[in-house]
Task: structure prediction
Amino acid sequence: MTAQLILFPELPAPPARGVTWQRHPMPPFTNYEMLNDGIPNGVWIRHCGHQTALRPYYVVAPNDDIIERKFRRLEEAKLAATMVAKCRYSDEAWLNEMLTRRLL
Result:
């Protein structure tokens, strides 16, 4: 891929494969949008906006449901967001149980 950029700098970079995250800074905090193969899938990780919050991150599903559990670290929220993207959004009790098992 780097050889392509060196030999042909006018070519656009190929889209990222798999799950990636796009930052959306809103100083002093940042929200993150999940991308699958470079395409947004509607899952977001948002910061609550409180500077001293113990669990500042929460996950928003594509249907705008906010997952009940909040997260201390961004890595935990990313794992939960990946699980949200893979499951049925209507079964919130199942999702909360799975998040409790995997993250605690």
User: Anything to note?
Assistant: The chain has one domain: 13-103. Residues 13-103 form one domain.
